[in-house]
């Protein structure tokens, strides 16, 4: 701009910030260089004329003209424009949930988000393999749903042991004000919702156990599901139980919302069912809960790593929760599964690391649709071996999946590069003579006790005893000494029974009490094998794997030891500490999530190398900081 162009009401923009628009006041200042006074709207100031450009109010503003005029924006201008478009809801291809949380970016975790927002029913089953982040995927879907649909009310239903994990994930990673709830609390919130309307917001986490009705309550809720009014399911004058009252009102509210139209506010904008295979039995109370909640919610997300591995009836039960209209009966579902088989076979073939031309051509030839076959054949023939072409063909095959609109299935081999190579090491333990003798004798004792008492759970009782001894013989011996398993002196009647089975050596001791007096800790062959392996790890010695290769373990690598029974863990901790190992243990007895988190954080950073975990104690806990995993108990 030239000094002689200065005039009042002349529209201009700043060359250093083209998004800054203003109007000249007409005032001029001649200092070291000519300056013009500009009214920016929020500020009036003198600016060097050389830094100003005229802008035309008549010329159409578009990308081409802006480039011709040299008008470029800043990063802030772009952010401002994108924010405006988001508020307008016009960016349908933008993930609003991206970069909105304290998580690392993994592309596969946004695949369920895309599938969900493209769904006509707002319902999805996420069946990703274990370890791919289904919890994060569900939270990203909720974040996206909030941005797109102004969703406010979320309910997460999970096993009791996972409630603390969900609270922690939603609070720490996504900054949601998540809180635990139960049927009574939900009923009070529902009453407030009826009074206050859709302005309420909450993120609630509860368990199947906290909601599912049992006994008479289950019968009442079943009657409510079938359409019976809530007041008619109880005897006149009786109080309505909180669960029954809640599910009755949930059903009524869902019916009212359906009659009012698709935009009518609902008590639940979304419900997430974690470990949804828990609801696979359609006659269970958990399924009843899922059915009523999914009907009441605007959107539903089910999470399960195992539905594909279950039988078709189990998968059908979950799909009915996702879309009861499409999956209205088992016959239709089975036909759909049968018709979908060629598509699944093609997807599995293309998922292999190495492609076989004949195998792929045959899989394509089995696709029922001629149009789809020709399209796939053309894509395959144009394949030049590049990752882009391979992905394009796999996506085309995936879109043919008849269940693709309802299920998202991601496998580790599809998304994880440089995957961890698992190097199994099997440590074979040979029982000492006394251990084997005690094992057989004790099982015989349990069998006799069960038969004498007429116990219908004989098989279970025997299996439990076998599992316990396979876990840790010294623990069982100590319990026997204390009378935990009954009177050991009754074992003297066992010789005749053994004579028919021939499973005990001739020098078999008739007195279990004498066997229990042996110091089995001193001859614990299983513990000695574990101790030897840990000593090798401590010395950074290589351990020979099952495939003949040797694995070197770093001196700082953490070791996880899993055992099923708490008493086995207590025994191992005592023995290992006596032998000089630094040990931390986590079991289901630690119910306070803050205490458990603190303990694990300390273990990840301190010098303790060994963490003893029970299955329940480790459920829902991320233990990615460890490298060595020891299964002390056999996987029965």
Characterise this structure.
The chain has 636 residues and is an alpha/beta fold. The chain contains 25 helices and 18 strands. The strands form four sheets. A seven-stranded parallel β-sheet has the order 8-9-7-10-11-6-12, with helices on both faces. Strand 3 and strand 4 (44-48) form a beta hairpin. It is globular, with a radius of gyration of 34 Å. The N and C termini lie far apart (83 Å).
Q: What's the total number of strands? A: 18
Biggest sheet details: 7 strands, parallel
Instruction: Record the strand order, biggest sheet.
Output: 8-9-7-10-11-6-12
Can you tell me the overall shape? globular
Q: Which regions have little confidence, pLDDT < 50, spanning 5+ residues?
A: 87-91, 488-510
Task: Give the overall average pLDDT.
Answer: 78
**Tally of helical segments:** 25
Fraction of residues in helices?
A: 40-55%
Tell me the span between the first and last alpha carbons. Answer: 83 Å
Tell me the β content. 5-15%
Radius of gyration: 34 Å
Structural classification: alpha/beta
């Amino acid at each position: 701009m030239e000094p002689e162009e200065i005039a009042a009401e002349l529209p201009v923009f700043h060359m250093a910030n083209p998004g800054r628009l203003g109007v000249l006041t007409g005032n001029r200042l001649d200092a070291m260089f000519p300056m013009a006074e500009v009214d920016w709207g929020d500020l009036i100031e003198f600016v060097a004329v050389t830094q100003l450009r005229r802008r035309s109010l008549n010329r159409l503003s578009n990308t081409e003209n802006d480039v011709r005029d040299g008008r470029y924006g800043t990063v802030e201008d772009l952010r401002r424009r994108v924010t405006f478009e988001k508020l307008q809801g016009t960016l349908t291809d933008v993930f609003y949930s991206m970069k909105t949380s304290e998580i690392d970016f993994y592309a596969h975790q946004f695949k369920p988000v895309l599938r969900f927002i493209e769904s006509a029913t707002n319902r999805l089953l996420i069946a990703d393999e274990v370890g791919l982040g289904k919890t994060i995927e569900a939270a990203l879907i909720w974040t996206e749903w909030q941005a797109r649909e102004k969703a406010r009310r979320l309910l997460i239903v999970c096993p009791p042991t996972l409630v603390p994990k969900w609270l922690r994930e939603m609070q720490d990673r996504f900054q949601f004000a998540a809180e635990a709830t139960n049927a009574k609390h939900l009923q009070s919130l529902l009453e407030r919702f009826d009074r206050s309307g859709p302005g309420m917001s909450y993120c609630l986490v509860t368990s199947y156990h906290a909601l599912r009705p049992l006994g008479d309550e289950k019968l009442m809720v079943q009657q409510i599901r079938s359409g019976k009014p809530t007041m008619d399911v109880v005897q006149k004058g009786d109080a309505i139980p909180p669960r029954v009252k809640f599910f009755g009102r949930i059903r009524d509210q869902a019916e009212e919302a359906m009659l009012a139209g698709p935009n009518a506010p609902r008590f639940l904008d979304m419900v997430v069912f974690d470990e949804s295979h828990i609801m696979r039995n359609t006659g269970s109370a958990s399924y009843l809960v899922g059915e009523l909640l999914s009907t009441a919610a605007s959107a539903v997300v089910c999470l399960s790593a195992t539905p594909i591995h279950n039988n078709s009836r189990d998968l059908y039960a979950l799909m009915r929760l996702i879309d009861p209209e499409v999956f209205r009966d088992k016959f239709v579902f089975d036909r759909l599964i049968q018709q979908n088989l060629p598509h699944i076979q093609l997807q599995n073939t293309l998922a292999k690391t190495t492609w076989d031309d004949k195998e792929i051509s045959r899989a394509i030839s089995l696709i029922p649709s001629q149009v789809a076959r020709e399209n796939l054949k053309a894509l395959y023939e144009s394949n030049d071996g590049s990752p882009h072409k391979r992905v394009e063909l796999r996506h085309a095959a995936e879109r043919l999946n008849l269940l693709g609109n309802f299920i998202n299935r991601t496998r580790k081999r599809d998304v994880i590069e440089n995957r961890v190579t698992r190097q199994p090491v099997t440590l074979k333990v040979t029982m000492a003579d006394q251990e084997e003798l005690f094992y057989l004798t004790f099982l015989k004792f349990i069998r006799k006790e069960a038969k004498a008492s007429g116990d219908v759970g004989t098989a279970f009782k025997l299996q439990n005893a076998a599992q316990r001894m396979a876990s840790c013989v010294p623990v069982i011996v100590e319990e026997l000494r204390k009378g935990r398993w009954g009177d050991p002196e009754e074992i003297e009647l066992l010789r005749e029974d053994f004579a028919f089975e021939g499973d005990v050596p001739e020098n078999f001791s008739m007195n279990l009490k004498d066997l229990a007096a042996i110091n089995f800790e001193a001859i614990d062959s299983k513990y000695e094998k574990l101790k030897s392996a840990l000593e090798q790890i401590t010395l950074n010695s290589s351990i020979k794997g099952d495939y003949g290769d040797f694995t070197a373990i770093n001196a700082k690598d953490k070791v996880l030891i899993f055992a099923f029974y708490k008493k086995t863990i207590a025994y191992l901790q005592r023995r290992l500490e006596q032998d000089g190992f630094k040990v931390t243990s986590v079991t289901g007895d630690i119910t306070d999530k803050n205490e458990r988190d603190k303990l694990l954080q300390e273990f990840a950073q301190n010098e303790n190398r060994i963490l003893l975990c029970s299955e329940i104690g480790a459920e829902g806990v991320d233990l990615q900081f460890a490298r060595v995993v020891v299964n002390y108990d056999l996987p029965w």
